[in-house]
């Protein structure tokens, strides 16, 4: 999420793009919510601030409770039960992230995502 190389990768086929995009949204959301960066350098103030942020994040993960985001099978089961529909809050988060990226090249994954997620985003 944020790799320029991935963003500029060529889009070679339209087969299964909706499903792949939805799976990518769940993966990006899980990466954003559940990866834990570590402070390597800092002082006691930095550590206290980081702990406060971590505690806040643990209390609000933003994922509907029926989705087991730690499990690929849980995400897949959620998608099957909900007609391959991604929760709107996940779409909005990712669309907001994409809006901060530069204009993508023609026929790239970045262009596809930017066009399609902007359409699906809540106003």
Automatic annotation (TrEMBL):
SUPFAM superfamilies attached to this UniProt entry: Rhabdovirus nucleoprotein-like (SSF140809)
Domain of life: Eukaryota
Family matches, as InterPro entries: Rhabdovirus_ncapsid_C, Rhabdovirus_nucleoprotein-like
Protein name: Uncharacterized protein
Originating species: Macrosiphum euphorbiae
Lineage: Eukaryota, Metazoa, Ecdysozoa, Arthropoda, Hexapoda
């Amino acid at each position: 999420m944020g790799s320029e190389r991935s963003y500029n990768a060529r889009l070679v086929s339209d087969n299964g793009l909706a499903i792949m995009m939805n799976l990518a949204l769940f993966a990006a959301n899980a990466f954003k919510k559940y990866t834990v960066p570590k402070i390597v350098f800092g002082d006691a103030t930095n550590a206290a601030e980081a702990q406060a942020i971590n505690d806040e994040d643990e209390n609000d993960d933003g994922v509907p409770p029926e989705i087991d985001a730690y499990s690929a099978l849980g995400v897949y089961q959620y998608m099957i039960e909900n007609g391959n529909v991604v929760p709107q809050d996940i779409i909005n988060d990712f669309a907001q992230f994409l809006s901060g990226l530069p204009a993508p090249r023609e026929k790239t994954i970045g262009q596809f995502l930017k066009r399609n997620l902007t359409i699906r985003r809540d106003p």
